[in-house]
Write a structure and sequence with these properties.
There is one protein chain. The chain has 10 helices and 19 strands. It starts with a strand and ends with a helix. It is of the alpha+beta class. The strands form 3 sheets. The protein has an 8-stranded mixed β-sheet with strand order 12-13-15-14-16-19-17-18. The protein has a 6-stranded antiparallel β-sheet with strand order 1-2-5-11-7-8. Strands 3-4-6-10-9 form a 5-stranded mixed β-sheet, with no helix packed on it. The chain is globular. Strand 9 and strand 10 form a beta hairpin. The chain folds into 2 domains: about 120 residues, Immunoglobulin-like, CATH 2.60.40.3120; about 230 residues, Zn peptidases (Aminopeptidase). Helix 3 packs across helix 10. Bound molecules: zinc ion.
């Protein structure tokens, strides 16, 4: 759906596609001054702290660039201080740039230069269902990875992982994208997958000791709908998988699959939106945190420092449930996008996993 603008011939704002937020073209209007007024969508009952997803396409069918005014109405205003940046993906996401923005009283005013072509305006560089399926295809049939379909979502989308390593080794489950806007984890995984596929000697020791299950997108229905936090069934995959799985077929199938593994280790990857300086690595094992902090790669080039810290797990989280049932060692990351392009996040993921995985291979649970 393209919303044209009488003041700017050839320009349109597009919504309604996979992962767009808002999905509803009625939430994008053009006022009498030619300003695009965009209402962000936050699903009912989602906590305000998740109101960060925005994903629109800007089209220019003309031959010259045009400077277009936008006014974005966020679903809430308490987190304005975190909304001081956005990303534009030129040429349908081929080249990403961070934009410095400001929000006040829940509104971001911006003028954006739209070159000829189709470009994406996002809170975080997009990683949609199509990107997820392409990632599974790219690595799913390539050594050392095999693709395993763990479950089908409530709307019948695939919830799949890429497995690698020694089937008799200790198991690590890695999940990302419990929440709709948090795309960092998938880029991190893609970075490490490319490394592991290209340099098998470098990962041979890890592969010999660990049995690795990587899930690049667990809340796939939420992503498709452009939701900020919750699955369309209302379940928060980050905090409620263990207690509300019965309300969502995808959640139920995923929990059953993970319970069947009885993993020794579980890492859930999120991405914080602000403050932007800390790459958080969390566990409740003080020894692991100290060992990680001692080896963690320098991230100052990304304007980040490591924040390794203890955490109180959500009661309904699958991390809590696994810890209780199987004595699983739980871990969680929150990697912010700010000042990073997709290539930076892929490199960050490669270095993060190359730090963590050797530690876990030797770790005494
Ligand atoms: Zn999250």
């Amino acid at each position: 759906m393209n919303i044209t603008n009488p003041k700017y011939p050839g320009i349109s704002v597009e919504t309604g596609y996979d992962n767009a937020n808002p999905q509803d073209a009625g939430m994008v209007r053009v006022d009498e001054d030619g300003v695009y007024a965009v209402r962000q969508f936050l699903e009912d009952n989602a906590p305000a702290g998740y109101s960060f997803h925005l994903n629109l396409a800007l089209n220019n069918s003309g031959a010259k660039p045009a400077k277009v005014p936008l006014r974005i109405f966020w679903a809430e205003s308490n987190y304005d201080y975190c909304r001081d940046y956005m990303y534009i993906g030129y040429d349908a996401g081929q080249a990403w740039r961070m934009l410095a923005t400001q929000a006040a009283q829940g509104v971001t005013e911006m003028q954006i230069v739209v070159p000829p072509g189709r470009h994406l305006l996002c809170c975080h560089p997009k990683f949609d269902v199509g990107d997820y399926l392409a990632l599974l295809d790219r690595f799913g049939g390539t050594a050392p990875f095999e693709r395993i379909v763990a479950a089908r979502s409530a709307e019948n989308r695939v919830i799949a992982c890429l497995r690698c390593g020694n089937p008799a080794g200790r198991k690590l489950v890695v999940t990302t994208r419990a929440h709709g806007y948090e795309t960092a984890g998938a880029y991190c995984l893609a970075g490490w997958f490319a490394y592991a596929a290209a340099q098998p000697d470098r990962v041979a020791e890890i592969m010999n000791q660990l049995n690795l299950y990587f899930f690049p997108m667990i809340n796939v229905d939420a992503v498709a709908h452009g939701n900020c936090c919750l699955a369309p069934t209302g379940v928060n995959f980050g905090r409620e998988l263990a207690v509300r799985g019965g309300e969502d077929a995808g959640a139920r199938g995923l929990v059953d699959f993970i319970d069947g593994l009885q993993p020794e280790f579980y890492l859930d990857m999120h991405n914080n939106t602000g403050p932007h300086l800390s790459d958080a690595f969390r566990s409740d094992d003080a020894g692991l945190l100290a060992a990680f902090a001692a080896r963690a790669p320098d991230r100052s080039r990304d304007q980040k420092v490591w924040g390794a810290g203890q955490v109180k797990w959500d009661e309904g989280s699958i991390l809590t449930a696994c810890r209780r049932q199987f004595n699983t060692l739980p871990m969680l990351t929150e990697f912010p996008w700010y000042a990073r392009a997709p290539g930076d996040m892929a490199e960050h993921g490669r270095e993060f996993f190359n730090t963590l995985l050797p530690l876990l291979a030797d770790w005494q649970v």
